[in-house]
Specification:
The structure holds two protein chains of two kinds. In chain A, about 75% of the residues lie in helices and about 5% in strands. By secondary structure, chain A is mostly helical. A two-stranded antiparallel ribbon of chain A has the order 1-2. Chain B folds into three domains: about 5-60 and about 95-105 and about 140-345, Tubulin/FtsZ, GTPase domain (Rossmann fold, 3-Layer(aba) Sandwich), CATH 3.40.50.1440; about 110-140, no CATH class; about 350-570, no CATH class. In chain B, helix 2 (about 45-60) crosses helix 20 (about 440-455), helix 13 packs across helix 20 and helix 21 crosses helix 23 (about 505-525). Classes of the chains: A mainly alpha, B alpha/beta. The interface between A and B is medium-sized, with 22 and 28 residues.
């Protein structure tokens, strides 16, 4: 569980930092004269595309894990070695021909979603004119 | 500043001084109450109708509260969150009453001076003093730079018409004399080189006093009026001679008129004299060239700095009583700067004018139509063009408009998603709606900027600069930090603050008050808002640098179907 928590936090932190810098850069350059709603709309579009890409990558990984048993075992070993021995296998993997490390992928995706939102909102809060743009407006 | 003041303007130039005076009142520099009597026999003089339209437009704005109480932190302790002070600013603070006496003169309507020749000797005398056209003119377009004709006719005309056609003005004077304890300044302003104005100057005081006496005013009440004249010397030049209006004679006529006035004041009864006289002129009238036209609506000349200076002289007399011991003072500045203008607190004058002009520019700026550059647009265009959802996302909508709208039953009963639409709709929120004030505000600010373009900017003197390299997008950011409490109080007759009744307010005026407060924040406490686009600067190198252009002002006026206003300022302008 700790491994997945660390995974979540690491992805979250890295994505948040990236989203913050990316958003703030855009606010200062491309969007420095845009109104709050067009900015929110542009961020919503950007974030949705980013999440779609990430989700697709993770889905492809899951597919390969299920289709190639050797790859699945490697990923299982990685998780088991990383302090997950106490957890029952079904929490970590759904077993198929190979397996799918759904908990890992979920932690990564969750971390990226949280980081993306946190970083974006954090950057928006630096501009008083964007105070009314909420979390739901940018996802 | 005095609490009540009276101004009598004569002819087109007098009307232009009044126009400048109205803008000074809009900047919050006027007296508490100002009564203006516009006198002209040119019933459709373009300068006169423009001054009257400016005053009307001012009154439409003044209907709503324009007081702000900005909270700023100043001084060394500001960075520690201490040193909080309140800055009060009120635009459109003067209660303005405009009366007009623009009747055509009966004598001339009946056939002119020629009809007065009831004997052969009289005919000879008339022929000696007046040419045939002067004897038969109907003066429908003024006295055409012929004060010799004007003086003769205007005194009788005023004596007859003042008690009837300007009764409201006389009533206001009577009321002021009864209720005011302090001196009541009365200023007559007109040109010395023209026709109607030059004719009015020597007779105005006597005519008004005569009418007041006739109305039964006591001597001690009459003595409460403190009279001054603000006389305009030649400060513009028609490009060619038209009928009796000969620009080459302006200086000569002026010299003769001044000489004549001095004999009038020396020899006439005390009640014809002025306690103070201001003369405003130009070292180079040819700097302001205009196309020569006579009377009617076509005589609408651009505004000039000299008229602005004259309006300041009017206000100066309002503040400072005439002192018999004051010697004649002559100011011939090498360059006209804010400091050399006739205002006791020139920094305040510069600051107030800057706030008003920036507000006008911020309101009328067109900006880009692109959605990605929404904040480059002015308030008028933003309110008109952006989607409801877009408008609702501006923080000042949530802080300033939505809580206020809750006081209106229709707004409160509306689903939150549709409230912006209700707020914009004058059919639902009527006078309180955003759209109700769009046209009046566009007209006033359009007039202000078109006036300022020539009045505050010339080849030699530049108080104003129009630029498009920057925009007001940072001001939108600053508006997001304004609190409702900063725009919800007004100053009463005394100096105590009183809350503004929500249903006595208008949505658009609330947005504009928010903009003024944001300007005060930025001006007094520049570090308060993150500056992404250069920040808002009130005055740069003694110039008010507006982030708009003349073209943008005209385009916005045309968009709101007010293109006719532009013509009023440019009809006789020569590029």
């Amino acid at each position: 569980m700790l491994f997945h928590l660390v995974c979540f936090l690491a992805f979250s932190a890295v994505t948040a930092a990236a989203a913050f810098l990316l958003t703030r850069g855009k606010l200062h350059r491309a969007w420095n004269r845009a109104g709050p709603k067009p900015i929110a709309d542009a961020l919503e579009k950007r974030n949705r595309i980013l999440l779609l890409v990430v989700a697709s990558i993770l889905a492809v990984l899951a597919f390969f894990e299920a289709a190639v048993p050797r790859l699945a075992y490697e990923v299982q070993d990685l998780q088991s070695n990383a302090l997950e021995e106490s957890l029952p296998g079904w929490v970590l993997f759904s077993v198929g021909n190979g397996s799918i490390s759904w908990m890992l992928y979920l932690a990564m995706l969750g971390g990226i979603v949280a980081g993306l939102l946190g970083g974006t909102i954090g950057a928006l809060r630096t501009d008083p004119d964007l105070r009314r743009v909420g979390v739901l407006d940018v996802i | 500043m005095t609490s009540e003041m009276f101004v009598i303007s004569g002819g087109g130039t007098g009307a232009k001084v009044v126009e400048a005076l109205v803008h000074l009142c809009a900047a919050g520099l006027g007296p508490r109450r100002l009564h203006v009597l516009l006198v002209d026999s040119d019933t459709s003089n373009g300068n006169l109708t423009r001054a009257a339209a400016t005053a009307k437009s001012y009154r439409a704005m003044r209907r709503w509260p324009w007081s702000v109480r900005a909270q700023v932190r100043e001084g060394a302790l500001a960075r520690f969150g201490l040193g909080r002070t309140e800055v009060w600013l009120e635009l459109f603070g003067t209660e303005l009453h405009v009366y007009d006496l623009t009747e055509q003169i009966q004598t001339v309507l009946n056939g002119g001076l020629a009809t007065a020749a009831d004997s052969a000797q009289m005919r000879l005398l008339l022929d000696l003093l007046y040419d045939p056209s002067e004897q038969t003119t109907d003066c429908s377009d003024g006295f055409r730079a012929r004060p010799n004709l004007g003086c003769l006719l205007l005194a009788d005309h005023l004596a007859e018409k003042l008690p009837v056609k300007a009764k409201a003005f006389l009533d206001a004077m009577q009321l002021a004399a009864r209720t005011q304890q302090e001196r009541i300044p009365v200023v007559v302003t007109a040109s010395v080189f023209g026709g109607t104005g030059a004719s009015l100057l020597p007779i105005a005081r006597q005519a008004v006093r005569g009418a007041l006496k006739q109305a039964g005013m006591e001597r001690d009440q009459l003595a409460r009026f403190d009279w001054a004249a603000v006389k305009m010397l030649p400060h513009y030049q028609p490009d060619e001679r038209q009928d009796s209006v000969d620009p080459d004679r302006f200086l000569l006529d002026t010299a003769s008129a001044l000489q004549y006035y001095s004999t009038v004041y020396d020899s006439s009864a005390e009640d014809a004299r002025y306690n103070a006289i201001f003369l405003v002129g130009s070292d180079n009238p040819g700097r302001n060239k205009v196309r020569a036209v006579l009377g009617e609506g076509t005589q609408a000349n651009p505004a000039y700095l000299e008229e602005f200076v004259a309006a300041l002289a009017v206000l100066r007399f309002g503040e400072t009583p005439a002192d018999a011991g004051t010697p004649m003072r002559v100011f011939v500045p090498e360059a006209v700067t804010w400091e050399s203008l006739p205002h006791a607190r020139w920094q305040e004058l510069r600051e107030r004018m800057a706030f008003l002009l920036h507000l006008g520019a911020f309101y009328l700026r067109r900006g880009s139509g692109s959605r990605d550059e929404q904040r480059t647009q002015g308030v008028a265009r933003l309110i008109r063009n952006v989607d409801d959802a877009d408008l609702a996302k501006f923080p000042w909508y949530g802080e300033i408009l939505e809580p206020w709208g809750q006081h209106h039953p229709a707004f409160k009963a509306t689903d939150p998603g549709r409230r912006v639409s209700v707020l914009r709709n004058s059919g639902v929120m009527q006078d309180l709606s955003l759209s109700a004030m769009l046209s009046p505000a566009t007209e006033y600010f359009g007039r202000l900027l078109l006036w300022a373009e020539t009045a505050l900017q010339s080849t030699d003197t530049t108080f104003l600069e129009l630029a498009t390299t920057d925009d007001y997008s940072d001001l939108f950011g600053a508006m997001s930090r304004v609190k409702a409490e900063e725009i919800d109080s007004a100053r009463g007759e005394g100096s105590e603050a009183r809350p503004i009744e929500p249903l006595q307010d208008n949505g658009l005026v609330r947005v504009l008050r928010t903009a003024i407060t944001a300007m005060v924040h930025q001006h007094r406490q520049p570090g308060r808002v993150d500056r992404r686009n250069g920040g808002f600067v009130l005055v740069e190198n003694d110039r008010i640098r507006l982030r708009t252009t003349s073209q943008q002002t005209c385009d916005t006026l045309r968009e709101i179907e007010m293109g006719g206003v532009i013509e009023e300022y440019r009809r006789t302008a020569l590029s």
